[in-house]
Amino acid sequence: MKYLSLKTVLFLCIITLLFSVHSFSQNHGKVKGQITTSDGAPAADVNITLKNSKYNTSTNDDGSFELNRVKANTYTLQISLTGYETSEQEINVADNEMTTISLQLKVSNKELQEVVINSRKSILSKKTTYVARMPLKNLENPQVYSLVHKELLQEQIAVEIGSALRNSPGVVPLNYPSGGFAAIFRGFTVGVNSRNGMETLSGRSSVGIANVERIEILKGPSGTLFGSSASSFGGVVNLVTKKPFETAVTEIAYTGGSFGLNRLTADINTPLTKDKNVLFRLNVAVNREKSFLDYGFNNTLEFTPSITYKASEKLTFNIDAELFNTNNTKPLYPNATATSGITNPGDVKLDYKKALVHDDADAKSSSAKAFVQGEYQINDNWKSTTLFSYVSENVDYSYQALPTWTSPTTVTMRATVFGPISSNYTNIQENINGAFATGFLKHKLLTGVNYRYYSDTFSTVTTPVAPFRTIDVTTNFVPVRKKEIDDVLGNPTIRAGREEFTFSAYVSDVISIADRFSAMLSLRVDNFDRKESGTTPAYNQTSLSPKLGLVYQIVKDQVSVFGNYLNGFQNLAPVNQPDGGQLILDPLYANQFEAGIKAEVFNKKLSTTISYYNITNDNAVMRYADLTYEQGGKQVSKGFDFELIANPIPGLDIIAGYAYNDNKIVKSTTFEGNKAADAPENVVNFWASYKFQNKIKGLGLGFGANYVDETYMSTANTFYIPSYTILNATVFYERPNWRIGIKLNNLTNEKYWSTWGAPQAPTNFLANLTFKF
Predict the structure, then answer these.
(1) Does the reported pTM lie above 0.90?
(2) Are 738 and 722 in contact (CB under 8 A)?
(3) Where are the beta strands (DSSP E) in 378-498?
(4) The pLDDT of residue 370
């Protein structure tokens, strides 16, 4: 069979869910307890295990834990924390009875926090302070989100962010011909524009993952907390970076593979002072690889140092930087004339592994980013966080070919050379978090302000409207070279630099009305001021963005139902039309209504979320097949998300998701009733791995599948990207100080194309060797 059908993949996901539930269904007793630190504080994220059994869990934020459906027996309960003395206690468990214990770790609260930050995280964990910008549990949060941890990236030997994001329900990676990277989910394109909660950029320089601790994907319009620059109507992608910790550890890894891949990474962590009040960490990655096409390459260098300075018990500074240099060839943006008879990339007769453009028509870009965070613990209930970020992205030059297919065998070539281009962002942010009570109501409060300054320069050179070459792909043609493009370039177009100033203030209050019932009330005011730039007039607007949510825990700390109203907005720059004119766009607003259920059950060994949403945009912008834009339509994106994460037995981890999205233009002068561009209807993700626990402990196996439905490249619905299924598998062996892994991608050698029509790699392999000392 060439590929798995959507029904088959869904069937496998359902069987997996049933198997997971069945695996949890036999036990009888309960163990409940409370763990504290040596100074009396609750001990969160401490490992709890009944030795020589399958029962294990970790403590909650308040230090509590539960083990349910435990078979009657005498056990040794083990409490462990990486790098510290393990505690054990013998307990007896009886049918239909609860065993209660209380233990104290020989660790202070300060030491515990350092260990928790840097210890191995379970793939089931949904603990984060960035999604709500406050310490809010998944079951307390009315917004849907998913996390992809670095342990999963290591298991899958992920060397680029696209494959990593496929682990989140409904998420499809998108590599722009411009060189940037984005993701598609809930029917909208979402840039990777948030880093540790602050604005970053992925417009033209792509994204490295060597310094990524986890990836957070927030679903739904998120303008209230993240503003218009970091979020889209689909949601937010937030990268959480690796932080320094108190233990000296170095990790060196090499990954080699198909198409000349050679990748070397280093992760070096060390205290700089004896009292461990100054900590340093450095992540470096050098990547060299060829394309599976006969021409094409991708070379990158990532350098990310970071320092943590503990000025006092209450005041901590985190300073980090990121340098990312890229030299590569860009994917092409294909187009087809109405008379060509071509409806999708599979119709063209070009050899799947043949390139239209040579290596020397490449691109070179760099990004430099600096971040500073100061965190001050005012008292037990109040905390101040001050943040500063500077992001600069620069394109030296970028050759981008524009092929237009006039028949399945004939293509005409035009090209644009972008650069030099610079984009610069400065952000200053202040957040105050607090907890207090008013009568019987308990509050978790966030108040914040943000100042943003943006400036840029932009230059392009385009070949004449008439193509400079026509290629018959059935012949032994010579690919387009840099000199051929340079010889026909016109005069450069230098756009006047832009300046934007944005001031924002926001507040979010999570009110616990009863023990299991809470409400989130949030509001943002955003003043956007764009200065006059060339022929583009100045623009000033003040926007309000509300966010409301309700959560009721049907079973406390296990099952909750939720509903939300989320708002997003975008201040849009003018767009250039093919005739040389500009379309001045009004700001966009989108509103989402969503309801669903979240569960973390069976001692947190199974986590699931299912929800239905409706996102409406009353002033949509549509891109047509001839690359013209129009504003004034109405777009409705609705569907549901399902996520399952499970650890039914020790060593077995399962991640599965299914997303259905119906994104249509419901009001348009031309395309009413058409599907929106870049919006696949059905997306499935599945990954399962097993690590042997006994005689061959350390050996592991993994298997995954991803299905993406067909999608249209424009609202005209005349050119589509076919659906595809890709299957991947891995085998690995890991010990405390080293790890070796082999991964096979695209097992069935599926021919498939990215959302914007670029052919993707056939069957390929990766081999990784990692040393830790």
Answers:
(1) no
(2) no
(3) 382-407, 410-418, 421-438, 441-462, 469-472, 493-495
(4) 94
